[in-house]
Write a structure and sequence with these properties.
By secondary structure, this protein is of the alpha+beta class. The chain has 12 helices and 15 strands. The strands form 2 sheets. It has a 13-stranded antiparallel β-sheet with strand order 8-7-6-5-4-3-15-14-13-12-11-10-9. It is elongated. This is DUF2306 domain-containing protein.
């Protein structure tokens, strides 16, 4: 009845091996971080002047980050090989291409620049292909594209750019590309400016005019590469003037104006880290308290992290339901006494019988250890539900959902919303989800009046509600106090605990507090788990839920 990180068991991640949590969750931030570095450094190397110090440094950083990506990809793919085998193939291809392109620049043969360009560009394209194939189905707009397009689109965009770059540098027609092409590739635009510069026109070499004189210490001159490159193709002015030259020294990009790091003199105000002023209690007011439920589960909207298809299901279930008029106590007179007390307590007289609700929740869930979470859920009476959750495991954000829509249940939870940690569906999970839906009638009291439900008295404080579903029947027992307030809910639930076989397991939830929303009085604090009413309770509880808000439609 209550959401769990894994529907078939109390805390399926409890049963997951520690190796999975330590190794995979430890490699995920490293893999993602190196991916960002590889993309940024690769783009920077493309945009910087070829052969410059910045180009070489960015290229090395790109290759190192790509090496880490290629070595961590097989480990991440081994967790879910059926869905992630392409990480190994594309990661190996990207690393091999980039390594070959990096080595090609040291060749002595003329085709080295073409091989360098093609190798590094192919590695970059393969890296982007791996990203889009793995994450495209979960990205807006990209999820509308078929699978083959995700495989081919980076190549379709990148290949023409590589050809264009090769032709611009004289490498398009032939590996030798002629004297002009090789000259442009070896020296770039700056080389052409120097060859036409007045200071080197007579000697044909850079000579001492392009370097600083060590004996006299006089600064030499350097040509502004950007402006000179633009003016290189223009006719020479009649007065013989050329683009302005600037002295080599400390310009606005140098260290002048940064101040002395040791004394702090000359440093601009506001630079550096300042310690925030303590609050009235002597603590940092910007730091969240340890007991804040969102210390580890940040204030994010879990619904916004759902895949597009799941968001469509959410919108469908959240549509206003047709009401059967207003509530009248005479509608429950044929039900068992405990059910009558509960429904007359839960539904105020005259309240429209809305059967759909959106819940905003937070609480704690046991995933190895107790972890804070934030969730939202939509329940459409006895038709289905979607539960979207956000939490953190080992400091890594985990987003996921449990769903039962159109008679099919599934459960997906991903690290960073990308790397699948739990992915399950099938008849057993659907059966477990259907039992959960019946138990969550405590949050949709109007759905308890459905003629599809069969009520049976147990004693003066308990009654059982039964819903036939195909060849299965789901029975939930509610226990109320003399005023009609819910005390606990129990049921035999179809589940697999500790990676064991599926079977009916005793499941229960205790209600600690309730509140009224839109005329419905429903539980707002719930503790749930398996082996209820056993000596192990409440140590075997796996989730604690607090309902912050409920909107009935």
């Amino acid at each position: 009845m209550v959401p769990a990180h894994r529907l078939p068991g109390p805390a399926p991640s409890v049963a997951q091996p520690e190796v999975l949590e330590v190794v995979v969750l430890g490699l995920v931030p490293l893999h993602v971080g190196c991916g960002i570095v590889a993309v940024a450094c690769g783009a920077g190397a493309m945009l910087t002047r070829k052969g410059s110090r910045g180009h070489r440094r960015l290229g090395r950083a790109h290759l190192v980050a790509l090496t880490v990506l290629g070595t961590t990809a097989p480990v991440l793919a081994a967790v879910d090989w059926a869905h992630r085998w392409h990480l190994v193939v594309l990661g190996g291809a990207a690393l091999a291409s980039a390594a070959a392109g990096y080595r090609a620049v040291h060749w002595s043969r003329p085709p080295r620049l073409l091989a360098h360009l093609v190798g590094m560009s192919s590695g970059y394209i393969a890296m982007l292909t791996a990203f889009y194939v793995d994450n495209g189905p979960r990205l807006p707009l990209w999820d509308q594209l078929p699978g083959p397009v995700l495989w081919l689109l980076p190549t379709a965009v990148g290949a023409p750019l590589v050809v264009r770059s090769a032709r611009r540098r004289g490498l398009g027609g032939c590996p030798l590309a002629g004297p002009r092409g090789l000259s442009r590739c070896f020296h770039g635009r700056v080389g052409r400016v120097f060859r036409h510069s007045p200071s080197v026109a007579g000697s044909g070499t850079l000579g001492s005019s392009s370097t600083r004189s060590r004996s006299h210490g006089t600064p030499a001159t350097r040509v502004e590469s950007s402006s000179s490159a633009r003016m290189d193709a223009r006719p020479r002015p009649c007065d013989g003037s050329w683009p302005d030259v600037v002295p080599m020294g400390r310009g606005r990009r140098g260290r002048v104006g940064r101040g002395d790091r040791a004394t702090g003199r000359g440093r601009r105000p506001g630079i550096g880290r300042r310690r925030p002023r303590p609050g009235p209690d002597g603590r940092n007011p910007h730091r969240r308290a340890a007991d804040d439920p969102m210390t580890t589960a940040r204030r994010v909207d879990p619904v916004a992290r759902l895949p597009v298809a799941v968001r469509h299901d959410w919108a469908e279930l959240a549509q206003p339901s047709p009401t059967d008029g207003a509530f009248d106590a005479r509608a429950v007179r044929d039900l068992p006494e405990p059910a009558q007390r509960w429904l007359t307590h839960a539904i105020a007289p005259g309240t429209p019988l809305r059967r759909r609700v959106e819940l905003a929740q937070h609480g704690r869930i046991r995933i190895g250890a107790w972890r804070d979470f934030r969730a939202r859920q939509v329940i459409a009476g006895l038709d289905g539900y979607v539960w979207a959750c956000a939490t953190r495991v080992a400091g890594i954000p985990v987003y996921g959902y449990d769903r039962l829509v159109h008679g099919r249940g599934d459960m997906v939870h991903r690290a960073f919303g990308r790397i699948a940690l739990v992915y399950e569906s099938g008849p057993d999970l659907t059966r477990s989800a259907a039992g959960r839906l019946v138990s969550e009638v405590i949050w949709t009291p109007a759905a308890a009046l459905s003629p599809d439900l069969v009520w049976t008295p147990v004693d003066e404080h308990s009654a059982t509600v039964r819903l036939p579903s195909g060849g299965d029947a789901h029975e939930v027992t509610i226990t109320v106090d003399p005023t009609g307030a819910l005390q606990k809910v129990t049921m035999p639930r179809w589940a697999a605990i500790d990676r064991g076989p599926y079977a009916l397991r005793p499941f229960g939830a205790e209600i600690h507090r309730e509140a009224t929303f839109d005329g419905f009085t429903v539980p707002t604090e719930v503790t749930a788990g398996y082996d209820h009413d056993s000596p192990r309770w409440p140590d075997c509880a796996f989730i604690q839920i607090t309902v912050d808000d409920a909107t009935y439609r």
